């Protein structure tokens, strides 16, 4: 039963990632693309967590945490670049 639920959830997250790629390609403005990249970080974290549940491995959860931290820093840096034109003052 758990493997079916993980398989269905993985399929849904894959569809969400494909829709994110479509929005990234068609996004009219730079802020839309930044939000799309942020959403892709979240979806990739979900994919890694589902894979960790499937394998019963705690290493995947640490990888998801690392991606979360990198995603936050990357989004903050891109937003700061958009607002001020430089990242480091």
What does this structure look like?
The structure is a single chain. The protein has 89 residues and is mainly α. The protein has a single domain (2-84), classed as Helix Hairpins (Orthogonal Bundle). Helices cover 87% and strands 0% of the residues. It is built from 3 helices and no strands. Helix 1 (2-26) packs antiparallel against helix 2 and helix 2 (30-55) runs antiparallel to helix 3. The chain is flat, with a radius of gyration of 15 Å. The mean pLDDT is 89.
Key terms:
mainly alpha; 87% helix; 89 residues
Secondary structure: elements and pairs:
Blueprint: H1 2-26, H2 30-55, H3 59-84
> What is the count of distinct domains?
1
**Residue share in helices?**
over 70%
Level-2 CATH architecture: Orthogonal Bundle
Largest sheet descriptor:
none
Count of DSSP-assigned helices: 3
The parts where pLDDT drops under 50 for at least 5 residues are none
Morphology call: flat
Termini separation comes to 53 Å
DSSP strand (E) fraction? Answer: under 5%
**Rg from Cα:** 15 Å
Q: Report mean pLDDT, rounded to a whole number.
A: 89
CATH fold description: Helix Hairpins
Structural class call reads mainly alpha
Count of extended strands: 0
CATH class identity:
Mainly Alpha
H and E string: HHH
